[in-house]
Design goal:
single chain; alpha/beta; Rossmann fold; 7 strands; about 45% helix; about 10% strand
């Protein structure tokens, strides 16, 4: 029997300056059980594909193809294209903490192109340090670019959420299905390129998608759709905070065109029972807090003998 390999992913997007801990906890737990697990935050990877010179060149290149229909703010930013491309690496490097000495230069007049986010925000109280001023201006710089992408390239993109309106209004599966049927946007393409890099490296026997917020729903199903199109035999599991609340009573079997399993609440026991099932060590009817499709209807199963693990048994997040 092949040893299971699990790929745990956070789809875009959560807060970029705070790693979401779900995959770190689950990866650490699986390692204590001798199960190979890898994790990745595809949100930060997608954003970093945008916030670099090559990514911005792609954005501005797309804008030039329909320049006559652009908003005035976008046209003004296009005139500063060279400055945006020149400064994107120094800004990201500074915000990542790799070049703290860049702070004085970033607040010099004329160094950063200043779009709508800077309006009325160009002065600081004396008590604000140079470092904090630079962080704020660097953030405005990135937010201007994010707004540009949202207004012209794809309405799905925002700095800490991705197509959040789809997740918030998903009273039925229709809107998600409609969004997935549309052609992939530039940011979707970057998302999927990052995903396939991890997939081909790990060659997983199970992909787990952690969906904590509405702003992660579209990205999760976009990834799941790509898997089912290319590798339909690879099982996909969906879990996380959003799933625990909004998909707890899902009845639409179309959801399982994209994912094979939906797990609820604390993830350690359901995930381990799922791995045991896929390894031939547990019948499907004995899964823990898990939904799946059977004969075109949604089935929920929960083995009462499979209790949750204590804190001492879950290991350390990695």
């Amino acid at each position: 029997m092949r040893s299971p390999r699990v790929l745990l992913l956070i789809p875009p997007l959560t807060q970029l300056n705070t790693p979401y801990p779900s995959t770190a906890y689950l990866t650490g737990f699986l390692e204590t059980r001798g199960i190979r697990a890898e994790q990745a935050d595809l949100g930060i990877e997608m954003v970093l594909r945008l916030f670099n010179p090559e990514g911005l060149r792609h954005v501005f290149s797309q804008l030039r193809t329909h320049a006559t229909a652009l908003p005035n703010e976008a046209i003004r930013m296009m005139r500063a294209e060279r400055s945006y491309i020149q400064m994107i690496e120094p800004v990201v490097s500074f915000l990542q903490g790799r070049t703290p000495d860049a702070a004085p230069r970033l607040i010099e007049p004329g160094v950063l192109p200043q779009g709508p986010r800077f309006r009325g925000r160009k002065t600081f109280p004396r008590a604000v340090s140079i470092d904090d001023r630079a962080k704020q201006w660097a953030t405005f710089f990135l937010e201007d670019l994010a707004d540009l992408v949202q207004a012209t390239i794809t309405p799905h993109f925002a700095m800490s959420r991705y197509a959040e309106h789809i997740g918030r209004s998903a009273s039925s599966f229709d809107q998600i299905a409609k969004a997935l049927a549309a052609p992939a946007s530039l940011t979707d393409q970057w998302l999927l390129e990052s995903f396939w890099t991890h997939f081909e490296r790990v060659k997983p026997s199970l992909v787990g998608l952690s969906v904590p917020f509405p702003g992660n729903v579209y990205g999760a199903f976009r990834i799941a759709r790509a898997i089912k199109q290319r590798y339909p035999a690879v099982p996909v599991a969906l879990g996380g905070g959003y799933v625990n609340t909004e998909l707890r009573r899902v009845t639409d079997p179309r959801v399982f065109d994209y994912v094979d399993f939906i797990t609820l609440d604390n993830g350690e026991r359901p995930l381990l029972s799922l791995i045991e099932y896929l390894s031939g060590l547990r019948p499907r009817q004995s899964l823990c807090r898990t939904m799946y499709r059977e004969k075109n209807r949604v089935v929920y199963t929960d083995d009462p003998s499979s209790t949750d693990f204590t804190m001492n048994e879950t290991g350390c997040p990695t």
